[in-house]
Amino acid sequence: MAQQLNLNLFDQQQDGYAQRREREARRQANMSASGRDIGDIEPVANPERREVCRTDFLQFCKTYFAEIFYLAFGEFHIKTARRMQAAILHGQRFALAMPRGSGKSALCECAVLWATLYGYRHFPVIIAASDNLAKKIFGTIKKALLFNPKIKEDFPEVCQPIAALENITNRCKGQTQHGTPTDIGWGDEIVFACVKESKVGGTIIMKASMTASIRGLKYATPDGREVRPDMVVVDDPQTKESAKSAMQVKDRLELINSDIAGMAGPEENMTIFVPCTVIQRGDVADQLLDRELNPIWQGIRYQLLDGFPTNLPLWQRYWNIRMEALRNDRGVEDSNRFYIENRQAMDDGCSATWPERFKPNEVSAIQSAMNLYFTNKSTFMSEYQNTPAEDDPGNEERLRPEDVFKLMNRRPKMQVPQAATHATMFIDVQKNLLYWAVMAFADDFTSWLLDYGAFPDQPRQMFTTYDASPTYSDICPAGTGLEGALTNALDTLIPPWINKPLVREDGAELYIERCMIDAGWGDSTDTIYTYIRESGLASILMPSKGVGITPAVRPFSEYQRRLGETVSQYEWHVAPVKNRPQIRLMRFDANWWKTFFRNRAMTARGDRGGFSVNESALSDRLRMLADHLTSEYPVSMSIAGGRRCDVWKLPPNKENHWLDCVVGCMVAASERGCKLLIDPPTARGKEPKPSANPHVSRQAAKRQAQAGQPRVIGVGRSIGAVRSIGAK
Question: 243-263 pLDDT, tens per residue?
């Protein structure tokens, strides 16, 4: 009996503990829910201020962002703001170029806020050239919603739920208003809270980059709907590197005109702003702003100076005074005094588009602009005037993609001219692709690029080594290693070309005399040596390696020739491979030969020693070829004693494989006996510069030869002066 009483007492104690635990859990849940519940939204602090800005975007900027727009607006600010407002209200697109530092990005950020806070647009997307830049702009909008006091006071239905999160993204899912979820978002996207006081609940702001996948961008709402963007801001869609690439320029233009412009679907009027900076002629910004080329973008191009000073000598005197004073720690008072005394004459010919833009130690906006001009002229013309110079200073001899387009000779691929006497091939080995080129040459080094490509063939016209598909490993059986895949690729690509007759216009047949294979990639060297020895084509195939010879390194032409070696004045050297005497390795000065190629490409059409491409129309593959051939730039270097040379540099994110192929074909042609009809460039310097009149007629050359005078042959601009080679 006593035992039964004890058991009942124990059960009662257990039941009481469970009930207390349940009550405490409910209490904690209620406390947590009340902590997540934002309750009623506070009233608008200044309804009149808010309503005044509803129909005036420029007034919104001045009212809520006075700390950013603290100077009086210039005329171009007013025009731009009106265009932005019309675009937001009616769904328009336009491209805009303003001087650097004029607030174009700030205007676009404010436009996103004005459009969303007043409910004109419900899904804007901010797109920048890179993910980091997109995050920066996105972060600026977040800070405005979090910390701008006037925005918080006048738009509490948006800002109060955001503030309640305390910048902790994980709290979004649990936030409620009177027990109803607000569906707020505060991470990689901003989603305005759905509260009873708000008419803009569910508005979305997202970010993306030009390099990300943005086709078909949409957002799934908590109730299962899918919404698409109705506004896009593409802030500076290019970088300095991409602006120099014809392939990237085309890709980014296609991205803007197709993927971005089509985000909203065919039935929506989408707003698109493209604030941009022109970096060079023909880049993305330059084409979007061109109303003749792209009238749909209604491009606007504003400049810091309208016109340009006519009295540049007076400005040069001013700048000399300014620099001399700064060198001697005297400040800018002397130069400012000179400007004030001569202001009328110095300002003649131009006016400032934003008169209020100048620093405290400057007198006027024109003076401020000219200080920028003398500090860096090319930057001033591109970033402040949005009209970059045709050629970059110091790079007159650098090839550009448009130069390559002019090299088309309107011949079909593989049509061999009658003048050709040699054919060569070069293969550039990469980890997943083989790039190749086939060229024909005349004895005087006139050359034709007959065909070029990659193995395996790529289904896309434009590609990179890193996104290539298929690769040569993909076409091998599963489990094949890198050496086996490379050997299979070489064996599939080379023999058909070696055995293929190249029919000349007159019916004669040429065959590839020399096929060189790049053996400079460390993981492939032994594989290539083995393949050449076992291929049965060792008399035609030759491994090669480009060496970057600088002024401090002895050039190949000065090597002492040994038994079994070949040394050329054209800066290449052939010698047996150490421990593999049956394999002869071609080593050549890559810097010297890239200058040689540049000079061939810049030779006037029709002159001997010129280079052309068998293409008849502009295509994506030709654009890619142009990108490769113009990927590197020369830097002239010299050392004491007079030796100098070009050292070629490859910028980041550029590919140069077909440049290597064309250069390799030229080296192979030199090895087969091709020579210029002028003295070749030497390791001590570039080819000689052209004279004022480099072209000598054939009749004049014939008369000189008959008279016993040295024969003179012009080889065109940029490759060098006419040189005497002796009469025949």
Answer: 877 778 888 888 888 888 888
